[in-house]
Amino acid sequence: MKKLLFVLVIIFFLLFGSYQVVKYKFAPEYNGTKELNGLKSESEVYFDDFGIPHIYAENETDAYLTLGFVHAQDRLFQMEMMRRVGSGTLAELLGEDLVDVDKFFRTLGIPKHATWSTEEWNKEGNTAWKIATEAYINGVNQFIQNGKLPIEYSLLGEKPREFTINDVHSIIGYMSFTFAMAMKTDPLVTKISRQLGPQYLDILSIHTLAEHHVIPNNYPKRDPESKEIMPVESLTALLEKLPVPLLEGSNSWVIGPNRTASGEVLFLNDTHIGFAQPSVWYEAHMEYPGFSFYGNHLAGVPFGLVGHTREHSIGLTMFENDDQDFFEEKLDPTNPNQTVYNDTIKPLIIRKEKINVKDKNPVEFEIKESIHGPIMNEVIPEIGRLTTNPVASWWVYILEPTKALEAIYRMNHAKNIQEVESAVRLIHAPGLNVMYGDKTGNIAWWAAAKLPVRPSHVNSKLFLDGTSSIDEPTAWMPFEENPMSVNPASGFVASANNQPDTLSNGTFFPGYYYPGDRWNRIAKTISSRNDWTQENIKDLQLETVNETHPINAKSLTKAVKDTDFGEFGAVREALSNWDGNHDLDNIAPTVYYKWLYHTLEGMMADELGEADFQNFLRTFLYTRSVQNLIQTANSPWWDDINTDKIEHREEVIQNALVKTLSELKDQFGNNTEKWKWKNAVVLEHPHPLGAKKPLDRFFNVKAPAVSANEESINKLAFDLNGDGIYHVKSGPAMRIILDFANVESSESVLPTGQSGNLFSPYYSDQAELFATGRYRPQLMNESQIKNKPKGNMLFTPKQIR
Q1: How far separated are the first and last CA of the chain, in Å rounded?
Q2: In the chain, where are the structural domains located?
Q3: What is the b/e burial string over 59-81, where b = at least 16 CB atoms within 10 angstroms of the residue's CB?
Q4: 3.55.40.20, 2.30.120.10, 2.40.160.40, 2.60.40.1080: CATH of 325-397
Q5: Distance between alpha carbon 292 and the CA centroid of its chain, in Å?
Q6: Region Disordered: start and end of each range (predicted)?
Q7: What is this structure's pTM?
Q8: How far apart are alpha carbons 17 and 14 in whole angstroms?
Q9: For 295-317, how does the pLDDT look when each residue is reduced to its tens digit (9 = 90+)?
């Protein structure tokens, strides 16, 4: 026995010692002194209790150089993944499984666009944003050259190449691709229109319905000369291979001084992004003479897309505007490399590209472009199945070089509301709702996007006619006509990815908007009182109530008999009394989502086929159309086209209920107390290497059960499915609350942690805080930061030896 104990002790110490050696080799450094090339003076970084760097520098260049180094030591592998997605080079690092993903992004045109943006960037003079960006890249590269690289590179047997401005543009291009809703939706809508007919489309919410909630506009008075504000008080399966998350939605609201207890602006933002490890946002606080900023940064981007100074705050949600059309071309019968257009012939532009593949031979392929854009049939299976004609993607983003870096820099450094709006104008795509609040009491929302003017007959959700110019956009709207609200009488601005109201030019701009459930809850709640504080507003940001789901549940329940519930009468009672809250101890969501899935499957899978039914569930059409679908008794969707008889609403809903109760009984047992929502919900933040077992045990971050939901303010989304286990795929990528009465007391939280390095103490230290609805400070007070830091690094100019 003593020998066995001795052996176990030896094994323990060997394992512990080995771990310490590995940790020493790969862990980030949060203490010590480093020399950096290019520093003009010393800079100092204090790391707080959550590993967030607070950078103190003597000048702007030193500050961004330092930021680049510390950002890279915590997030280098994330930067690697982001730049490789945007440049179409994932297969080179991760293998042949990613070849199709590389083909997709190359065909779409993001790498080509990044090169164009870089060419234009290189023509610029030494602007402030260019100097700052190059300093940041220098800092990243000095970490690559001299820092302790994360363990992922050793596991892959690779070393990172140096970072470039083209990598930054590739990352911006990837994030501009966002959630690909047009590519998921338009082929499906076109299929329904062509193969099933208008009576099927009529039941779906292709366009915003009257019952959906819109964001009101409030256009400001402008100087007629300067135009400034007058000062006032299955593609799905392919995308699932991505090792980085997609932007999906977001909430933000800004409450004016007349509705807050402090008499100053209250600012909130929670961006909805696919969950992953590391979290999307990297927080950093910078101080140098004339500048004090706390920002949320994307990997590889030097400026904070979301953040605040002591005087103003900016936030983001996705606009969800329709900025991509598909044109169906007609090939010249005499030459397959030409298309027919306006009684003439237009040649296709053809280029060959080579994809390097890890441990395999390179893959060569062709990309063809018509006058409308790249031909997508080969990389979007839904298009290839629908038509043999070439279908081109016309996408606003690739039509002009990006000025995102200039725009974000200027928003970070703005001195007033006019300067922020001036920066917002530079964003042409993707469509963003930029939210704003400041110390002087201004609140604002701008839809930042270049909006095309389409002919009145065009339905932008259907494939358009590429054989002529008849369906093409005719002009661009001036920015002043974009959706916006500046200092409205309501005392607040809010955006939640829903439809903006009619624009000043009379346009109801099309998009892939959500129905407005979240916006409505936000608007009603804020309007209910005038004493909002940083503390009492938390209940709203963490709310998991959806008012539409109980209406749907009651509609389903009324369609069946009480006896259909059999021994599970408690289920009927739970659904009938449900208020839409997704409390973890509630059984109503567990039953509702499974019953809804089987009802929709019984309605639609026969017409669409299983693959396109699953695609439907992952589009905005599903979210916007559910209520209409299940309540419309005379809908053609109810009939099963594979049978001779005609099925009706009650029959389909009843069959779905029988299946639901049987499956839940098998899954959780006879006792409905075991059917609680917490037993059906799983939250795990996946790392790019976590897809391979047993690496998932080390790299993925598991979290406690959360109140997963569809379209509650605290949106924790999952794919509707028949399995009855709901893996939360996306949600708030941070939760920010800031009261301008005390900027230094602002709060936030990340889904996992600040660091992407497995051996950092900040890898997953916020996961439980996030899951349980708690916050932590965003420190800006110098004495608090420097009093008892968790780490302190001094950076000095490199000496010539």
Answers
A1: 61
A2: 325-397, 548-581+587-675
A3: bbbbbbbbbbbbbbbbbbbbbbb
A4: 2.30.120.10
A5: 27
A6: 780-801
A7: 0.94
A8: 5
A9: 999 999 999 999 999 999 999 99
